[in-house]
Amino acid sequence: MGEIGKQLGGGQASSPHLGGQPTWSNVLKGSHLPARVEVRMEEMSGIEETSAERLEKIRKAIPDAKAIIPHPRAQNKVLVIVRDEKRRDQITQCGIQGVEGVKLIRRPFLIMASRISLNTEIRNAKCEENEKWLSEVRKRNGMGIERVEWLYSTKELNRRRQNP
Fold first, then answer.
1. Per residue in 25-48, is it b (16+ CB within 10 Å) or e — as a string?
2. Domains of the chain: residue spans and CATH
3. Hey, CA dihedral for 9, 14, 20, 21, is it positive or negative?
4. Measured between alpha carbons, how far is 151 from 145 in angstroms, rounded to an integer?
5. CA distances from 80 to 77, 94, 99 (A)
6. d(CA 122, CA 38)
7. 102-105 and 77-81 as β-strands: parallel, antiparallel, unpaired?
8. Per-residue confidence (pLDDT) for residue 151, from 0 to 100
């Protein structure tokens, strides 16, 4: 298989740590990109700041910030490159303190869970049934899931429940 695989371009999936192309799971997680956090900066009374000035202001809150990437459409949003995933997680959990006008933007991680029965008591709105299901899942799996809903609309969900 080795020689045929080379000729056809097949073979084992390479790892980004080995210098190859990232796998699909790495692309989905974003782990092939440098560790980063998203920050919103308030403008200083109409004064336009340079990237270097923004980086210096961010370094007051995140001393080990390596670089910033300005958002292409939102002037006041930037991605801050940090040293590793552990530091990114630390910043995300603790937040940013001590610098006026710099706010951390926290985005939820969306996951899709398969093999959940359509008869499971989950609604497409915030309700008691969803909270009960979430508390059971948290106890069972130890995961910090905050919200749950179906991928289907309520009308489609009812149709699927009646005609399995």
1. ebeeeeeeebbbbbbebeeeeeee
2. 36-105 (3.30.70), 109-164 (no CATH)
3. positive
4. 16
5. 10, 16, 15
6. 32
7. unpaired
8. 87
Q: What was the pLDDT predicted at 32? A: 74
Low-confidence ranges of the chain (pLDDT < 70): 1-19, 25-31, 44-46
pLDDT of residue 19: 59
Token pair 């179906």 is found at: 150
What's 106's DSSP letter?
A: P
Answer whether 82's CB lies under 8 Å from 88's CB: yes
Please list the helix, strand and coil fractions of the chain in percent, rounded to the nearest 5, in that order: 35, 15, 50
Q: pTM of the prediction? A: 0.56
Beta bridge partners of 36: 81
